[in-house]
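for the writeup, i need someone to sanity check this before i put it in the appendix. the sequnce is what the collaborator sent (i think, or maybe the updated version? ugh). structure was predicted straight from it, no edits. if anything looks off just tell me and ill rerun, i have time this weekend
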Amino acid sequence: IDQSIGHGFLEVFGSAPLEAGGNFLGKKFEQEFGHERHQQDKGGDCLAMPADKVHAVAASSQQTLAKPDMRMTPHRSDSIEIVLNHPGELFVAPVPDPFAGRFETRSGVEQLVRELTLDRAQRHYRPNIIFRMPGGSGVAGHEEAFEAALRGYCADRIADLDLDSQQLVSSGRHALLRGLGFLAACLALSGTLSNTSFMPEFIHRLLAEGFNIAGWVGLWRPVELLLYDTALPRRDRAVLRSLLSRQVRFVEG
Protein backbone atom coordinates (compact mmCIF):
# COMPACT_ATOMS: atom_id res chain seq x y z
CA ILE A 1 0.00 0.00 0.00
CA ASP A 2 2.76 2.45 0.93
CA GLN A 3 4.54 1.79 -2.33
CA SER A 4 1.41 2.29 -4.39
CA ILE A 5 0.54 5.52 -2.57
CA GLY A 6 4.06 6.84 -2.94
CA HIS A 7 4.11 5.91 -6.60
CA GLY A 8 0.80 7.73 -7.21
CA PHE A 9 2.01 10.73 -5.22
CA LEU A 10 5.10 11.02 -7.42
CA GLU A 11 3.07 10.67 -10.60
CA VAL A 12 0.61 13.44 -9.61
CA PHE A 13 3.14 15.95 -8.36
CA GLY A 14 5.84 14.98 -10.81
CA SER A 15 3.59 15.66 -13.79
CA ALA A 16 2.48 19.14 -12.70
CA PRO A 17 5.60 21.04 -13.87
CA LEU A 18 5.41 19.30 -17.22
CA GLU A 19 1.80 20.33 -17.72
CA ALA A 20 2.48 23.89 -16.57
CA GLY A 21 5.41 24.26 -18.95
CA GLY A 22 4.17 22.06 -21.77
CA ASN A 23 1.31 22.06 -24.22
CA PHE A 24 -1.74 22.36 -21.99
CA LEU A 25 -4.19 22.62 -24.89
CA GLY A 26 -2.71 19.52 -26.47
CA LYS A 27 -3.21 17.52 -23.27
CA LYS A 28 -6.75 18.79 -22.92
CA PHE A 29 -7.46 17.85 -26.53
CA GLU A 30 -6.02 14.42 -25.87
CA GLN A 31 -8.26 14.02 -22.82
CA GLU A 32 -11.34 15.02 -24.82
CA PHE A 33 -10.79 12.97 -27.92
CA GLY A 34 -7.94 10.62 -27.18
CA HIS A 35 -10.20 7.99 -25.67
CA GLU A 36 -12.47 7.88 -28.69
CA ARG A 37 -9.56 7.81 -31.12
CA HIS A 38 -8.04 4.98 -29.15
CA GLN A 39 -11.28 3.05 -29.38
CA GLN A 40 -11.49 3.71 -33.10
CA ASP A 41 -7.90 2.71 -33.71
CA LYS A 42 -8.38 -0.38 -31.61
CA GLY A 43 -11.36 -1.46 -33.72
CA GLY A 44 -9.46 -0.80 -36.93
CA ASP A 45 -12.05 1.71 -38.17
CA CYS A 46 -10.70 5.23 -38.81
CA LEU A 47 -13.80 7.29 -38.23
CA ALA A 48 -13.88 11.10 -38.37
CA MET A 49 -14.17 13.22 -35.25
CA PRO A 50 -17.79 13.70 -34.15
CA ALA A 51 -19.32 16.75 -35.83
CA ASP A 52 -20.66 18.26 -32.61
CA LYS A 53 -17.23 18.28 -30.99
CA VAL A 54 -15.62 19.74 -34.12
CA HIS A 55 -18.09 22.65 -34.00
CA ALA A 56 -17.49 23.09 -30.26
CA VAL A 57 -13.71 23.37 -30.72
CA ALA A 58 -14.12 25.79 -33.65
CA ALA A 59 -16.52 28.00 -31.68
CA SER A 60 -14.16 28.07 -28.70
CA SER A 61 -11.23 29.10 -30.92
CA GLN A 62 -13.25 31.88 -32.55
CA GLN A 63 -14.28 33.27 -29.16
CA THR A 64 -10.67 33.29 -28.01
CA LEU A 65 -9.49 35.11 -31.14
CA ALA A 66 -12.38 37.59 -31.00
CA LYS A 67 -11.51 38.89 -27.53
CA PRO A 68 -10.22 42.48 -27.87
CA ASP A 69 -6.90 43.53 -26.40
CA MET A 70 -7.89 46.37 -24.10
CA ARG A 71 -4.28 47.45 -23.66
CA MET A 72 -4.14 48.65 -27.26
CA THR A 73 -6.99 51.16 -26.76
CA PRO A 74 -6.23 53.17 -23.61
CA HIS A 75 -8.90 55.51 -22.37
CA ARG A 76 -8.29 59.19 -23.04
CA SER A 77 -10.06 62.03 -21.33
CA ASP A 78 -11.71 64.69 -23.48
CA SER A 79 -10.25 67.54 -21.43
CA ILE A 80 -7.13 68.61 -19.56
CA GLU A 81 -7.96 70.39 -16.32
CA ILE A 82 -5.27 72.13 -14.30
CA VAL A 83 -6.14 73.32 -10.82
CA LEU A 84 -4.34 76.41 -9.50
CA ASN A 85 -4.41 77.87 -5.99
CA HIS A 86 -3.92 81.45 -7.23
CA PRO A 87 -4.04 83.24 -10.61
CA GLY A 88 -0.35 84.06 -10.27
CA GLU A 89 0.47 80.34 -10.48
CA LEU A 90 -0.57 80.41 -14.11
CA PHE A 91 2.89 81.71 -15.10
CA VAL A 92 4.96 81.50 -11.90
CA ALA A 93 5.88 78.21 -10.27
CA PRO A 94 4.26 77.85 -6.84
CA VAL A 95 6.19 77.27 -3.65
CA PRO A 96 5.61 73.67 -2.57
CA ASP A 97 4.34 73.07 0.96
CA PRO A 98 4.14 69.34 1.68
CA PHE A 99 2.61 69.96 5.12
CA ALA A 100 -0.29 71.74 3.45
CA GLY A 101 -0.60 69.13 0.73
CA ARG A 102 0.94 71.26 -2.05
CA PHE A 103 3.64 69.39 -3.97
CA GLU A 104 3.52 70.99 -7.42
CA THR A 105 6.70 72.78 -8.52
CA ARG A 106 5.62 73.80 -12.05
CA SER A 107 3.53 76.73 -13.17
CA GLY A 108 0.16 76.17 -14.79
CA VAL A 109 1.51 76.75 -18.29
CA GLU A 110 4.41 74.37 -17.70
CA GLN A 111 1.98 71.70 -16.53
CA LEU A 112 -0.15 72.27 -19.62
CA VAL A 113 2.81 72.06 -22.01
CA ARG A 114 3.89 68.85 -20.32
CA GLU A 115 0.43 67.31 -20.74
CA LEU A 116 0.19 68.38 -24.38
CA THR A 117 3.67 67.04 -25.07
CA LEU A 118 2.68 63.61 -23.78
CA ASP A 119 -0.41 63.64 -26.02
CA ARG A 120 1.29 65.12 -29.07
CA ALA A 121 1.83 61.65 -30.58
CA GLN A 122 -1.92 61.51 -31.23
CA ARG A 123 -2.40 64.03 -34.00
CA HIS A 124 -6.20 64.06 -33.88
CA TYR A 125 -6.41 64.30 -30.11
CA ARG A 126 -7.39 67.87 -29.22
CA PRO A 127 -8.70 67.96 -25.66
CA ASN A 128 -10.49 70.86 -24.03
CA ILE A 129 -8.17 72.91 -21.83
CA ILE A 130 -9.47 74.20 -18.50
CA PHE A 131 -7.70 76.21 -15.82
CA ARG A 132 -9.64 75.99 -12.56
CA MET A 133 -9.01 78.49 -9.75
CA PRO A 134 -10.62 79.05 -6.35
CA GLY A 135 -13.77 81.08 -6.07
CA GLY A 136 -13.23 84.80 -5.65
CA SER A 137 -9.86 84.79 -7.40
CA GLY A 138 -10.97 87.41 -9.92
CA VAL A 139 -11.32 85.18 -12.96
CA ALA A 140 -15.04 85.71 -13.49
CA GLY A 141 -15.59 88.54 -15.94
CA HIS A 142 -11.91 88.71 -16.91
CA GLU A 143 -11.57 85.58 -19.03
CA GLU A 144 -10.46 87.54 -22.09
CA ALA A 145 -7.64 89.17 -20.14
CA PHE A 146 -6.41 85.77 -18.99
CA GLU A 147 -6.56 84.41 -22.55
CA ALA A 148 -4.64 87.41 -23.89
CA ALA A 149 -1.99 86.99 -21.18
CA LEU A 150 -1.65 83.29 -22.01
CA ARG A 151 -1.23 83.97 -25.73
CA GLY A 152 1.34 86.68 -25.05
CA TYR A 153 3.29 84.34 -22.80
CA CYS A 154 3.24 81.59 -25.45
CA ALA A 155 4.42 84.00 -28.15
CA ASP A 156 7.31 85.17 -25.96
CA ARG A 157 8.32 81.59 -25.16
CA ILE A 158 8.23 80.70 -28.85
CA ALA A 159 10.60 83.60 -29.61
CA ASP A 160 12.98 82.41 -26.87
CA LEU A 161 12.91 78.85 -28.20
CA ASP A 162 13.64 80.12 -31.71
CA LEU A 163 16.76 81.84 -30.40
CA ASP A 164 17.79 78.73 -28.50
CA SER A 165 17.41 76.62 -31.64
CA GLN A 166 19.46 79.07 -33.68
CA GLN A 167 22.24 79.05 -31.09
CA LEU A 168 22.28 75.26 -30.99
CA VAL A 169 22.44 75.01 -34.78
CA SER A 170 25.28 77.56 -34.91
CA SER A 171 27.22 75.71 -32.21
CA GLY A 172 26.60 72.43 -33.99
CA ARG A 173 27.97 73.75 -37.29
CA HIS A 174 31.13 75.05 -35.66
CA ALA A 175 31.57 71.78 -33.79
CA LEU A 176 31.03 69.88 -37.03
CA LEU A 177 33.83 71.80 -38.77
CA ARG A 178 36.19 71.12 -35.88
CA GLY A 179 35.14 67.48 -35.79
CA LEU A 180 35.74 67.01 -39.51
CA GLY A 181 39.22 68.55 -39.19
CA PHE A 182 39.98 66.27 -36.25
CA LEU A 183 38.72 63.26 -38.20
CA ALA A 184 40.93 64.13 -41.20
CA ALA A 185 44.00 64.43 -38.98
CA CYS A 186 43.26 61.13 -37.24
CA LEU A 187 42.74 59.30 -40.53
CA ALA A 188 46.00 60.69 -41.87
CA LEU A 189 47.90 59.53 -38.77
CA SER A 190 46.18 56.16 -38.94
CA GLY A 191 47.21 55.70 -42.57
CA THR A 192 50.79 56.75 -41.83
CA LEU A 193 51.14 54.34 -38.92
CA SER A 194 49.64 51.50 -40.95
CA ASN A 195 52.54 51.76 -43.44
CA THR A 196 55.37 51.98 -40.90
CA SER A 197 57.64 49.07 -40.16
CA PHE A 198 60.00 50.41 -37.45
CA MET A 199 57.56 49.37 -34.68
CA PRO A 200 56.25 45.95 -33.81
CA GLU A 201 53.15 44.86 -35.71
CA PHE A 202 50.97 44.94 -32.63
CA ILE A 203 52.02 48.46 -31.59
CA HIS A 204 51.56 50.27 -34.90
CA ARG A 205 48.32 48.41 -35.57
CA LEU A 206 47.02 49.42 -32.15
CA LEU A 207 47.91 53.07 -32.74
CA ALA A 208 46.48 53.10 -36.26
CA GLU A 209 43.15 51.65 -35.17
CA GLY A 210 43.09 53.93 -32.12
CA PHE A 211 43.46 57.11 -34.21
CA ASN A 212 40.79 55.84 -36.60
CA ILE A 213 38.30 55.30 -33.77
CA ALA A 214 39.17 58.57 -32.04
CA GLY A 215 38.53 60.52 -35.23
CA TRP A 216 35.01 59.15 -35.63
CA VAL A 217 34.24 59.60 -31.93
CA GLY A 218 35.12 63.27 -32.32
CA LEU A 219 32.04 63.69 -34.51
CA TRP A 220 29.67 62.60 -31.75
CA ARG A 221 29.29 66.07 -30.21
CA PRO A 222 28.35 67.80 -33.50
CA VAL A 223 25.84 65.05 -34.24
CA GLU A 224 24.40 65.39 -30.74
CA LEU A 225 24.00 69.16 -31.12
CA LEU A 226 22.45 69.09 -34.58
CA LEU A 227 20.20 66.05 -34.23
CA TYR A 228 19.31 65.63 -30.58
CA ASP A 229 19.76 68.88 -28.64
CA THR A 230 17.61 70.79 -31.12
CA ALA A 231 14.75 68.29 -30.79
CA LEU A 232 13.51 69.51 -27.39
CA PRO A 233 13.17 73.21 -28.31
CA ARG A 234 11.54 72.22 -31.59
CA ARG A 235 9.02 70.01 -29.75
CA ASP A 236 8.15 72.67 -27.17
CA ARG A 237 7.80 75.30 -29.89
CA ALA A 238 5.34 73.10 -31.79
CA VAL A 239 3.27 72.55 -28.64
CA LEU A 240 3.14 76.26 -27.82
CA ARG A 241 2.12 77.13 -31.38
CA SER A 242 -0.70 74.62 -31.24
CA LEU A 243 -1.75 76.16 -27.93
CA LEU A 244 -2.18 79.56 -29.60
CA SER A 245 -4.92 78.15 -31.83
CA ARG A 246 -6.85 76.37 -29.07
CA GLN A 247 -9.71 77.57 -26.95
CA VAL A 248 -8.74 77.77 -23.27
CA ARG A 249 -11.29 78.15 -20.50
CA PHE A 250 -10.68 79.85 -17.16
CA VAL A 251 -13.23 78.94 -14.48
CA GLU A 252 -13.69 79.40 -10.74
CA GLY A 253 -14.78 76.89 -8.15
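Confidence is low (pLDDT under 50) at residues 1-22, 36-48, 64-75. The longest helix spans residues 143-194.
thx in advance!!
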